[in-house]
Amino acid sequence: xxxxxxxxxxxxxxxxxxxxxxxxxxxxxxxxTIRNASGAVVPGAQVKVFPVxxxxxxxxxxxxxxxxxxxxxxxxxxxEIYQLGQAGVAVVSIKxxxxxxxxxxxxxxxxxxxxxxxxxx
Length: 121
Fold this sequence. Notes:
Blueprint: H1 2-20, E1 29-35, E2 46-51, E3 64-67, E4 73-77, E5 89-98, E6 101-110, E7 115-120
Parallel strand pairs: 1-7
Antiparallel strand pairs: 1-4, 2-3, 2-5, 5-6
């Protein structure tokens, strides 16, 4: 009986330890709200983001682009760029274009955290 209890205890301990090591990756999302000079949101704007190079961090991507939605928000998912356990902050440049107008901005992107920024055009 003692032997079975010991085996069961070891088995349960291994299961508990292995399940604690599994950590679900959270999304790394940047949401950029495009606004015009009067502060109204701008749906349909072309928005591009690209990394600002630094000496310590090689560029693992070059550029991403999308169109702002009906709420004027352009959403970018950086899950493929940030790997689980990778630490660090990236500074991302933003360019937005709509009807001959343009605007720029920057956003700080951290692994597994949402970030937001406005850009005025």
